[in-house]
Amino acid sequence: MNSLKDLIANNRRWAEQVTAEDPDFFRQLSMQQAPRYLWIGCSDSRVPATQIVDLPPGEIFVHRNVANVVVHTDLNALSTIQFSVDVLKVEHILVVGHYGCGGVGAALNEDRLGLIDNWLRHVGDVKQKHRSALAKLADFPAKHDRLCELNVIEQVRHVSQTTIVRDAWERGQKLTVHGWIYGLKDGHITDLGIDVPGNDALVDAYVGAIERLTGERPEA
To answer: What are the distances in angstroms from CA 172 to CA 35, 61, 63, 140, 176?
Structure first.
């Protein structure tokens, strides 16, 4: 296990390597940030946003929480969305879940873990909403994968329904919300086929994504 001193030493080596490759990198980075993307992902330590899409620091604005959930009363998430949309003018919001998510698995299995159970209740709501689609699957791993996917699609809907995103669309700002999922076993990102570029597109995008995934047509 690395000690804290090891982490600092790693930082120094990394900074020296970056500077050797691009002597002006940190000067330019410190002057401003102008990312095109907001990444809303899971806190899982195995899913580092910039690394898995091979982008350098400064390219992605990031919000992470357990099970990549967006709740309309969560001021942390809403503040991040507001700043990225209104101030940074990002063009894409990426909601990125991952297979094997512990939070989603706990909600599916109805585990009792403590305070986090209250947060994972939101994933439990997704499970309840799509209980018939999940019931068609034979085993826990298949249900787990499907709930990870469904959770991403539901969170894309939640992001698209925030007043922040809706207001941006109404004033003509270029902004699209997407749903992706990351595979821990192969490192590949899969596009879940939900892309929402405006208020009028949300219902069709949501219904289409759920129908393609489950074979069931959800209520809009």
So the answer is: 19, 22, 24, 44, 12
